[in-house]
Amino acid sequence: TQLLEQSPQFLSIQEGENLTVYCNSSSVFSSLQWYRQEPGEGPVLLVTVVTGGEVKKLKRLTFQFGDARKDSSLHITAAQTGDTGLYLCAGITGNQFYFGTGTSLTVIP
Amino acid sequence: GAVVSQHPSWVICKSGTSVKIECRSLDFQATTMFWYRQFPKQSLMLMATSNEGSKATYEQGVEKDKFLINHASLTLSTLTVTSAHPEDSSFYICSAGLAGALRQETQYFGPGTRLLVL
Q1: Which of A37, A87, A89 to mutate to test binding with chain B, by most B CBs within 10 Å of its CB?
Q2: Ramachandran category for residue B105: left, alpha or beta (phi over 0 → left; psi -120 to 50 → alpha)
Q3: For an interface test with A, which of B31, B45, B94, B105 has the most A Cβ atoms less than 10 Å from its Cβ?
Q4: What are B47-104's pLDDT values in tens digits?
């Protein structure tokens, strides 16, 4: 089993604060994705990173793929209440797809 | 964009009954569909991979006789929870892989089905 550990598991912050979520593995992935899921809904794809060291920005969200393609981070600047949700990373290798353990984010107004 | 629907969105049933959940790709053909189970604030756990016209591949620990999967067409897969018990209560999510996709990551998720077994 290729395990993707996310940290922290739970995070509660004030609106306007910055935060970083980590996704770590001992395995190498050909690509990695980040999803956000709101209660009672399916996950929604935020980004796919493919190249080691790649950085992608999506408005206030910055995603980075580790140089060795084993880990990734998601940084949110000036969090808003709409950022509340479950963040999931997913590593892809060959034809296999592995979800991370998840980070539940609550942004307090 | 590619849309995946699930029906029903929620279901409440008595212990011992069977429940069928449908997963449909609305505007594309999906050769592969995936079924996941999720507990509150936890990650998705892959239950099985379903390929059109063939038997599903179940993950270790998932009872194939308990969770029957049928992928009858390129747009429909069904998950039947047989003789449901309270411990089967969960959020079930399907996803569909785009037929002909060159890379595995072209996968679209349904909105999920919440099952409550009394």
Answers
A1: A37
A2: alpha
A3: B105
A4: 999 888 888 999 999 999 999 999 888 899 999 999 999 999 999 999 998 755 545 5
